[in-house]
Amino acid sequence: MPIIRVENLVKRFGNITAVNDVSFEVDDGTIFGFLGPNGAGKTTTINILCALLSPTSGKAFINGHDCMRESSSVRKSIGIVFQDTTLDKDLTAEENLLFHAYLYNVEKGERRKRVDDVLRLVDLFDRKNDLVKKFSGGMKRRLEVARGLIHRPKVLFLDEPTLGLDPQSRTNLWEFITELPRRHSVTIFMTTHYMEEAEVCDDIAIIDNGKIIAGGSPEKLKKIVGGDVIYLKTRDNVLARDTIKKTLDLDASIRDGELFISTVKGDACIPELIRTLGDSVLSVSLQRPTLNDVFLKLTGKAIRDEEASGADTIKAEVRAYRRRHS
Ligand SMILES: Nc1ncnc2c1ncn2[C@@H]1O[C@H](COP(=O)(O)OP(=O)(O)OP(=O)(O)O)[C@@H](O)[C@H]1O
Ligand SMILES: [Mg+2]
After folding, report:
1. CATH code for position 311
2. Burial class, 266, CB count within 10 angstroms (exposed 0-12 / middle 13-18 / buried 19+)
3. Residue range of the domain that includes 297
């Protein structure tokens, strides 16, 4: 039985349809990635699953409990790390966790031990008596994960857990999060804007404008892009494009002074291209598809804010390409 089941979920706010007929399932003990650009409907879906918001229509179940009718059983089954931090900065790490343990009805005699256990888990035991306002962003995020785990939930929701963290803190936090299903039998439901972070997911659903537009493992999704891309610079790109078509029957397009060739087996193609074009070749590189390429292909947008602002697909693709090669 899946640990999360969502059927035809709809949520409207006035005339905005934030979640538009969404259905998916998540298997127990897996890492599930819910990906989409700003305003896609991710947080709204999470809020419904966590029994914090009622849907307009549709059904959702966690651990067999109906998210609308059995909200207290649902809340016991889940831990949440919200998109915006919700720690009390004027309390110590330990006080924050003790308060949460109390809210979640962890037995009185058991609370301090549980708090110590989760603080050790996130490597903050030595800082337990420090005020949270003295913590760095990464430490606060780790403390929130600890808090989400204190009542031993079946599912941990992480809404943008690495937002605002530096690359090293992001990597550390992910290393820790990806170990959780195996070590603590918890299912992870996460959102992120960083596509490379989604590589750790067993399964992914991509949501755009409130609708799920694709799903599957990272490998399956990458197949949507249709294989590799070869980038080729030559002395005469127009001539090279015509020669490639005539001799190898491959379609190339020219963009920004370069030839782009989409092909299933890029590595096998490169020697043939070089044989055919000879001295005219100035440089060649091969790009394997990434989840960001999948996202660009499906939505025409890069997943992160700064890339998505009104850019057309080609500009965004070229920027993504430049970044990969800089
Ligand atoms: N309480 C609300 N009242 C009105 N509209 C809302 C409310 N909450 C969300 N929305 C709208 O619903 C849509 C989806 O928002 P949501 O927060 O679910 O997106 P998101 O995918 O989490 O985006 P982000 O990546 O920016 O966090 C947006 O258009 C948003 O403005
Ligand atoms: Mg959100």
Report:
1. 3.30.70.120
2. buried
3. 222-325
Query: Do 157 and 30 belong together in one domain?
Result: yes
227-258 confidence digits (pLDDT tens): 788 999 999 999 999 999 999 999 898 888 89
Q: How many angstroms is it from 53 CA to the middle of ligand 2? A: 14
- Taking the CA of 35 as reference, the closest ligand is 1
Tell me the CA–centroid distance for residue 66 and ligand 2, in Å.
23
Q: Which of 216, 242, 269 is the last residue of a domain?
A: 216
Residue finishing a domain among 216, 237, 254: 216
Distance separating the N- and C-terminal Cα atoms of the chain:
46
Query: Do residues 176 and 263 share a domain?
Result: no
Assess whether 194 and 317 both reside in one domain. no
Q: Which CATH number covers residue 16?
A: 3.40.50.300
Q: Which atom of ligand 1 is nearest to the CA of 40?
A: 21
Q: Residue 225 C-alpha to ligand 2 middle, in angstroms?
A: 26
pLDDT digits 0-9 by tens, 98-156: 999 998 889 999 999 999 999 998 889 999 999 999 998 889 989 999 999 999 899 99
* Dist. CA 173 → ligand 2 center (Å): 19
From the alpha carbon of 83, which atom of ligand 1 is closest?
27
Distance from Cα 41 to the centre of ligand 1, integer Å: 6
d(CA 202, CA 149): 21
Q: Are residues 186 and 55 in the same domain?
A: yes
Which atom of ligand 1 is nearest the CA belonging to 160?
27
Total number of domains in the chain:
2
pTM of the predicted protein model:
0.79
Nearest to 256 by CA among 305, 301, 315, 193: 315
User: Which residue in 294, 299, 300, 298 sits closest to 314, CA to CA?
Assistant: 300
Ligand nearest to the CA of residue 42, numbered in listed order: 1
Residues 10 and 53 in one domain: yes
Is 152 in contact with 144 (CB distance < 8 Å)? no
Identify which of 44, 208, 295 to mutate to test ligand 1's pocket (most ligand atoms within 8 A of the CB).
44
148 and 212 fall within a common domain: yes
d(CA 2, CA 26): 6
Counting from 1 in the atom list of ligand 1, the atom nearest the Cα of 210 is: 14
